[in-house]
Design goal:
The structure holds two protein chains of two kinds.
Chain A lengths: L1 E4 H17 L3 H13 L3 H20 L9 E9 L2 E4 L2 H15 L23 E7 L4 E8 L1 H4 L3 E5 L5 H15 L7 E9 L1 H13 L9 H14 L15 E11 L4 E8 L6 E4 L1
Parallel strand pairs in A: 1-3, 2-4, 7-8
Antiparallel strand pairs in A: 2-5, 5-10, 6-9, 7-9
Helix pairs in contact in A: 1-4, 2-3, 6-8
Chain B lengths: L6 E4 L4 H4 L7 E10 L2 H12 L12 E3 L27 H6 L4 E4 L5 H9 L3 E4 L5 H5 L2 E8 L8 E15 L12
Parallel strand pairs in B: 1-2, 2-3, 3-4, 4-5
Antiparallel strand pairs in B: 2-7, 5-7, 6-7
The chains are: A alpha/beta, B alpha/beta.
Chain lengths: 279, 181
């Protein structure tokens, strides 16, 4: 059994929390740069160029890309052949706490959804564990801003529903709330499983690089159609018009029940953030 | 950045100044305004309703829907972009009635807010959401002045130079957000 001290987990999570919030993901930045070249509306081009400059300033001056440094979601893929000395969940939470403190990130977590007292540490974070083969630990930190999280939606479609039903629902979600969620958007879609599994898949989909072709043919087709139709809505950058409404659509699926077709649409903004590392 | 087309506006935003704005116009704001987001709105609303002390003067002033990140040593403020405006919709008409000139946020407003904007001759401005680092360079002074217990949701007094905004709803009620295919 390989042994890892939990302090190393804390250090990694701390670093990833800061990195994710200060350095815009390369795939996201590239997609904005591409859009800035092809966008025709002058105000939309200006906004896209502002976003590119924003990413540069954030990196150069160590200022977060966005003031909403998010609720931290952490994905932890832990190999069966590794033992962590010390509490793993506590180590991850400590990493988030230190990262948000040392990186001058905003503490946006309240201890109770109704009593709403700020915990001042941005913890607890939401952790998803996955036990896999091997003796490594792979950690992904996803600071999820709530401007876009609030625009996300879930629906339990019927098993007889079609690809078109899925596309229609995603389009409805974006038409209704997309302008409030900092477009151009990155869309993560989870299809199948149970209600909670679909939501988890949708969040995981956001962490995948955008612009890559989906492995599954039918999902690639759905993703392509959603992207094409979203970019014809006219919502545009900042919701002020233009043809760049969506930067990328990632879809993950899972087997589901004969009676159902769960569908979760996670909306993420142009400051879609995540960072990962391996121990 | 090509700011030549943008009109520089010195605050405060008197009725005379703001009534000249048209939806779609891009402005560069210079002067002072306050931040306020969800919980600060709730408190301001309750204070107005119960005729209690208001920690800031709303008359001809602007509320910026923003909760900045902490300022690292040697800086004025951290990232400070706008948050989603529609969460403030339930409080905005009361604040406009109480003298508020404008709000700065991101995204759409409710029909009730649009009506109130027209009735009181106010405006709704949008800043680019997610451009928090970019906008931080336009803030020259920041001080937390009220509701300090709310942490990032406290009211900050900001002094800005060339703070870029777009007129999203003008005093006639024309909105940039109408119509979407």
């Amino acid at each position: 059994m390989r042994k890892i001290n939990s302090i190393r987990v804390t250090e990694l999570v701390r670093r990833l929390a800061i990195e994710a919030n200060l350095c815009l993901r390369k795939d996201v930045l590239k997609s904005i740069e591409r859009a800035a070249r092809t966008e025709t509306a002058p105000s939309a081009r200006r906004i896209l160029r502002m976003l590119i400059q924003n990413a540069r300033i954030a990196r150069a001056k160590s200022i977060p890309i966005c003031q909403d440094t998010g609720f931290a979601e952490v994905f932890c893929r832990i190999g069966q052949g590794v033992v962590v000395k010390g509490g793993l969940t506590a180590a991850i939470n400590k990493g988030i706490m230190l990262g948000y403190r040392d990186g001058f990130l905003r503490k946006s977590v309240v201890s109770d959804p109704l009593l709403r007292k700020n915990t001042k540490t941005n913890t607890p974070c939401v952790i998803d564990y996955d036990v896999v083969k091997g003796d490594k630990i792979r950690i992904t930190v996803v600071p999820k801003g709530f401007g876009s999280e609030n625009a996300s939606a879930i629906i339990m479609l019927k098993p007889t529903d079609t690809e078109e039903s899925i596309i229609d629902f995603v389009l409805d979600v974006v038409r209704r709330a997309g302008r409030d969620a900092c477009p151009p958007l990155v869309i993560g879609i989870g299809i199948g499983g149970t209600m909670d599994k679909a939501a988890l898949l949708a969040t995981k989909a956001i962490t995948l690089p955008i612009g890559k072709r989906q492995a599954k043919e039918h999902l690639a087709r759905i993703g392509g159609m959603i992207m094409e139709r979203l970019n014809k809505t006219g919502i545009g950058p900042a919701g002020l018009g233009g043809k760049t409404t969506c930067l990328g659509v990632n879809i993950l699926s899972f087997p589901t029940h004969i009676a159902g077709l769960p569908l979760c649409v996670k909306i993420s903004c142009h400051a879609t953030r995540s960072a990962n590392g391996v121990l | 950045m090509g700011f030549c087309s943008m009109k520089r506006i010195h605050l405060p935003l008197t009725k005379e100044v703001r009534s000249g704005f048209r939806a779609g116009e891009e402005l560069l704001l210079c002067g002072r305004f306050y931040t306020a987001r969800d919980m600060a709105h709730k408190r301001l609303y309750q204070a107005i309703r119960l005729k209690k002390f208001l920690p800031i003067d709303l008359t001809d002033n602007i509320l910026y829907y923003c909760g900045p990140t902490p300022a690292p040593p040697g800086t004025v403020i951290g990232a400070c972009g706008p948050t989603t405006s529609k969460r403030m919709d339930q409080f905005t008409p009361f604040l406009l009635k109480a003298g508020l000139a404008a709000s700065i946020g991101k995204g759409q407003r409710s029909e009730v807010v649009i009506q109130a904007i027209r009735r009181y001759g106010c405006v709704y401005l949008t800043a680019v959401g997610g451009a928090g680092a970019y906008l931080s360079e336009r803030v020259k002074k920041a001080e937390r002045i009220a509701y300090k217990d709310l942490g990032p949701e406290a009211i900050y007094e900001l002094y800005v130079e060339d703070f870029p905004v777009t007129v999203a709803i003008d005093a006639c009620g024309h909105s940039l957000f109408k119509g979407c295919k």
